[in-house]
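Quick board copy: two proteins, each given as sequence then tokens.
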Amino acid sequence: MAMFVFGLAFSGNVSDIPVAVVNHDSPAAFGNQTDLSLGASIVEHLDPDLIRMVPAADEAAAVAMVERGEARAALKGNSAQRSAVH
């Protein structure tokens, strides 16, 4: 939300923000649903006009992408730690 407001203040338009995505979330059974993946669900609900997802092999690669300016942020999801934003 803050990035949206910041973008509106300076350019009036925020779109195509590159975000490195590391998704090592393992699908799990929950209630009557099988193969429920929180990581996949989060990725599916990101606005593709606002965020351009850039796949990263692991957390180190995602951080390196941010440091090189290839991504503005990194989003990591795995089975032990459901989601973390860096």
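And the next:
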Amino acid sequence: MSFYRPIGLVLVPGCLLPRSLLLNEHWFRNLHQAQKIIADWRTDFNEQRPHSSLDYLTPAEFALNQRQYTIDFLEHQVNE
């Protein structure tokens, strides 16, 4: 079994984050614990924590708004 070991970055869908945002806060005793903590952190980061670069929306809220904007735009184009 091989493991991917990122160097200095944590992969979060759509975003690369500095390793220190997560890994400097935790010491992992085993792989299962690491997977659980990283999954919880990713959920918090993407669904609970607002980001100033996204006008203080969470990434999940921002993505939903962008999807709705795209749908509205396409519907408007079809109706013209």
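Board note added afterward: The beta strands are 9-12, 15-18.
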